[in-house]
Amino acid sequence: MFSSLPQASVKVRTTQDNVAGVQLPKFEPVKEAADSKISLIGLGSGGQKIQECRKSFMTAIELLVELASLQTAFLTLDEAIKTTNRRVNALEHVVKPRLENTIAYIKGELDELEREEFFRLKKVQSNKKKHADQTAEEEAALAALAAEQGDNMALVEHDEDVIF
Question: What is the DSSP letter of 157?
Fold first, then answer.
């Protein structure tokens, strides 16, 4: 049955266009070689009407192919936009807040470490000052004791020059 059907006089060629990183199919009508039998139809009467009808048919096919191309491109772009919007929403509502929370946590930890370091430095300075004050008090007490006893070398318990 299919073998008795004539060949199509118009076929559709598909190409790909890249628009904003999205591959869009593009359809173009391709006319096959005119059949000699068809060109002789209606030579006697009505041939012009048949030719006008064929032209109208070709125009309709070209418009339908262009419409199909645009519709397919629209659907493909619409799907790409939806996918991109989903990704943007995921970035805005999931990834970005997660990163902001991580940054806030790290800042808090760094502030806490800075406070601990400041407190430790103050504590070390306080201990050094206490130690310096104690040493100064001991030296003052020894100096007062030495002044009170009148530089008696025998009463001094510790002498650095004495080895034994």
Answer: S
Residues making up the chain, counted from first to last: 164
Number of domains in the chain: 1
Residue-wise pLDDT tens digits, 121-161: 999 999 999 999 999 999 988 888 877 776 555 555 666 77
Q: Residue 11 pairs with which residues in a beta bridge?
A: 30
pLDDT tens figures, 59-91: 999 999 999 999 999 999 999 999 999 999 999
Q: Residue 27 domain-assigned?
A: yes
- Phi/psi at 28 (5° precision): -135, 135
Residue 59 lies in a domain: yes
Rounded distance between C-alpha atoms, residue 146 and residue 140, angstroms: 10
pTM: 0.57
Domain extent for 66 = 10-36+48-99
The answer as to whether 133 is a domain residue is no
Integer angstrom CA distances of residue 29 from 16, 54, 115: 15, 15, 76
